Amino acid sequence: MINDDLPNGDEESLHETWPSESDVGNHVAPPHCRSTHLLDVPAHRNGTLGRTISQLNAAVQLNHIDESRYYPSTLRPGRLMPLDLGLEGAHVLVTGASGGIGLEITRLFAEQGAKVTAHYNTNSATLQPLISQYGSQHIRALRADLTDEAAVSKLFDEATSSSFGAVHILILNHAISAKIREPVWKISLERWKHTIDVNLTSSFIVVKEYLKRLEMTPDVIKDRASVVIIGSTAGQFGEAGNADYAASKSALMYGLTLSLKNEIVKIAPKARVNSIGPGWTVTPRTEPSIKNPDIVYTALATTPLKKVAMPQDIAPQVALLASQRVSGHITGQVLMIQGGMEGRLLNKQAEL
């Protein structure tokens, strides 16, 4: 079962969410995600590092407290995206829809008038507010173990047998990451296989089923076909102690994306496949890590914007790439959403 060991049964990409396995959140940033959680600067930390931590405090505070300072009013939670993406009536299947980023993706597609099948593995509680807000005519929650081919086939059967019809757009957002960070020589074969199965093999199973069904649909469906894969900066830069997760994300963002974009056009000439690679993103599950100045410093030391993302930074880019109207000539691309991050901070000053 995907993420069966998670407290809330949620599944979605981690995107640098040390050290948790997944993100769980509501369709708007919850109150505890807006409170002030500044980083304590120990007395022995001074000079450049102390000033850097102080700057990160300001960045973290900005992310948590005052969204209005860096989001246009029309992009804040609960507001419509100020652009018609031509998604009205499109059927969008979002995997791992019950987590922080998945919820925001689901919300934004619903706002655009799409019909969203919101996949979850064990717990749909976080999806219920969205279903209440937008109605069952726009959002439907369905459960499935994505590592099971029969379960995935059933998921598509249930999704397409409703008034939603055939799936136009597929968003592959589910993923897990181990709670314990270990170097490769300590990672068990069981852990490696589990991560690859849940993150990579399940994505293959889902996209395979999507393409099999897409091939049999009329041109009106094929002309709106799009796949957006959620990767991670771990897939771009690697991640020490998390090689299994990083390897799965690299495979999705590059090997699978670049192969699929050449194959999907054989059955749907206008269809496109793209990926995005989020970096560190604020969600309720990442909240404890933000209190650790070492983690935040390591995360943002090579990031020019000196702040972490919110789910509202990620979801609009997913919707834009999925839209045939605005991104009809974009395919095979990996869009990194990480504040300009240039790589990993491997060695701190004290370690040299």
Automatic annotation (TrEMBL):
Residues 1-30 are annotated as: Disordered. GO terms for molecular function: oxidoreductase activity. InterPro entries: NAD(P)-bd_dom_sf, SDR_fam. Keywords: Oxidoreductase. The keyword Metal-binding does not apply. SUPFAM superfamilies: NAD(P)-binding Rossmann-fold domains. Belongs to the short-chain dehydrogenases/reductases (SDR) family. This is NAD(P)-binding protein. It comes from Leucocoprinus birnbaumii.
